[in-house]
Amino acid sequence: MALLKKKEDKKPFVARSSAGGTGSEISPLRPVAVLKEPPCIGHCPSGNDIRGWLTIIAQREKLGLSLDEACTRAWRIEVETNPFPAVMGRVCPHPCEGECNRKVKDGAVAINSVERFIGDFGLEHALALPRLTSEPKPQKVAVVGAGPSGLSCAYQLARRGYPVTVFEAFEKPGGMLRYGIPEYRLPRQVLDGEIQRIADLGVEIRCGTTIGGDVSLDDLRREYQAVFVGIGAHKGRNLGIAGEEGAGVYTGTEFLNRANRGESVALGRHVVVVGGGDTAIDAARVSLRLGSDVAAVSRRMGAGVTVLYRRTRAEMPAIGREIEEALEEGIRIEYLAAPVRVVRNGDGQMTGIVVQRMALGEPDASGRRRPVPIEGDTYEIEADTLITAVSQEPDWSSLGTAEVKGSWLEVDEWGHTGMPDVWSGGDSVGLGLATISIGQGRKAAEAIDAALRGVEPTKPAPLPRVGPERIKLDYYEPKPRAERTVLGPEDRLARPTEEVDKGITDEAALFETTRCFSCGSCFGCERCWMYCQNNCVKKLTPEPGHYYKIDLTVCDGCKKCAEECPCGFLEMV
Ligand code: FAD
User: Is 268 in the pocket of ligand 1 (CB under 6 A)?
Assistant: First the structure.
């Protein structure tokens, strides 16, 4: 690059306001390196150091790391806050990318695809989760539920030396990652591999044990010094419409649970799914894969599976590409449509659904426009099966705790419940995403660790944020974003459990890391070193985020270093 000249060549760039030769006044400002929070990290619910793992791979040559060493260190950075990188690299809706500063140049960094690459690297190389101490702690912790929140909490406690036992009602761990998300989105060997690593840390996972049944919550509270409740939200809500009671009606979670266990479910020829979230889209796509008659009708008339959603596509909460793939597979989505009655024949068998057309009215409490019925505008569609995927809530019936006032357990910012020794997180405190559950499980683990040590939990000091206005966009070469390849719709239906999303190639993932701007953290670009006329910028032995030291005793405040810093790390104060 033309700018990467030797120091002796730099004189033509002089543009100073200070002593040191120009005769102008000495500037009172001095450069300071200020580490900042990039938007990717700020928008990651599990608090993952995304910039850290992208840049360690991108800067591996400067750091003197081989590719394997860089990928191993990237994986270690990743698993600090997320023990499921290969899983999340597949199912996370990646809010980080939505805010990436690179999107204003030539598209957000494909963070989620690189996460998957790093996660798969960790599995392929059998990397072990890192412990924080080898000292065992005496206090025992119980975790109820082996979903992402419970397993994240268990991991964080086990690596701090606590003996942890996870109690899981189902026969296998994973929660909704196994019993909600279909295999074509999340291969089970990936999930099993990442869970096994947590067990390898010494976490005991007792499956087939329902707390509230075999053992009560009070039993746990007596035997363990702290309890984390991560029971998720597995109770699907009903629609409350006429004819709903009877054969052929499933909640989305119940249907997916049965399908993911490998149970057969008689669907008939026409399936109607109600809802607009991930559960609805997963249930619709699984119906198409499970029911051969449904698939045949879909192929002939395109109406084997119909999703009814009461708002429009713009308000649909399901992951965008899942909606696209559902449409490609021949699933029909009817927007502004709500079921009002299940039609049954004299034998009680379902034959159709009466649907009410809706319009969008004023915004409701969620900020989305409220769907309102268009009076008198109803129609009937054929249906043999109705899957209601409108919402879920935790099933407290077995746990039977008086602390639960409504559907959700109330917690403070650390997941602490009203019970002194009980913490909670994930879907049992509010419906969310796997990444939110992982973050809440970690925070609760930090709080439990603090409580067991008799101290207050502490948060890292907040960092200033760095938006695109602080980035020198022209410094960075244009580089097109890598896009994932996906299996074609016909192949997907012919091989229903095969992973649909094929990710990006290893080469593309490595290239993608070089698209990261390293917003708010030094990546050793040398601009400050090159432009400084007074030799204030000294090179250090490179470490991630630490490449230079500024000697202020010889600085004349010319500002060049801060002006040239492309990533918003240096500023004048
Ligand atoms: P869960 O994953 O629900 O795990 C709770 C565990 O507790 C379960 O294994 C349950 O059996 C166990 N349990 C319950 N009661 C007891 C008891 N009394 N005793 C012992 N064990 C008990 N999120 C994403 O980020 N991306 C997606 O693509 C995505 N897709 C989804 C698709 C579907 C169909 C669903 C339903 C959810 C999806 N989510 C997705 C959301 C995500 O799966 C959840 O937010 C997350 O799994 C919640 O984690 P959790 O640990 O709180 O609960």
Answer: no
* 524 Cα distance to chain centroid: 29
What are the tens digits of pLDDT across the range 96-135? 999 999 999 999 999 999 999 999 999 999 999 999 999 9
**String of DSSP letters for 113-127:** HHHHHHHHHHHHTTP
CA angle 283–289–291, rounded 5-degree value: 90
CA of 473 to the centre of ligand 1 (A): 40
Q: Give the closest residue (by CA) to ligand 1 atom 6.
A: 145
> Comparing C-alpha atoms, which of 264, 268, 519, 211 is closest to residue 394?
211
For residue 169, the one-letter residue type is: A
Cα–Cα distance measured from residue 402 to residue 398, given in angstroms and rounded to the nearest whole number: 12
Nearest to 476 by CA among 531, 530, 518: 518
* Domains of the chain, each with CATH number or no CATH: 39-127+472-513 (1.10.1060), 141-234+394-452 (3.50.50.60), 235-392 (3.50.50.60)
Residue 394 Cβ inside 6 Å of ligand 1? The answer reads no
Mention every residue, 6+ apart, whose C-beta is less than 8 A from residue 306. 270, 271, 272, 273, 331, 332, 333, 334, 381, 383
Strand partners, 235: 393
**Cβ-contact 123, 412 below 8 angstroms:** no
Structure tokens at 406: 């409504």
Q: Of the residues 153, 184, 195, 231, which should be mutated to test ligand 1's pocket, given the most ligand atoms within 8 Å of the CB?
A: 231
Q: Beta strand pairing status for 332-334 and 305-308?
A: parallel
Q: Which residue's CA is the nearest one to ligand 1's atom 12?
A: 145
As to burial, measured by CB atoms within 10 angstroms (0-12 exposed, 13-18 middle, 19+ buried), residue 430 is middle
What's the pLDDT band for 6 if we cut at 50, 70, 90? very low
The predicted model scores a pTM of 0.93
Q: Is 145 in the pocket of ligand 1 (CB under 6 A)?
A: yes
Q: To the nearest whole number, what is the mean pLDDT of the chain?
A: 92
Distance 247 CA to ligand 1 centre (A): 26
- Whether the CB of 280 sits within 6 Å of ligand 1: no
Task: Count Cα neighbours of 33 within 13 Å in the Cβ-side half-sphere.
Answer: 14
pLDDT digits (tens, 9 = 90+) for 205-253: 999 999 987 788 999 999 999 999 999 999 999 999 999 999 999 999 9
Q: For residue 397, what pLDDT is reported? A: 80
SS3 397: coil
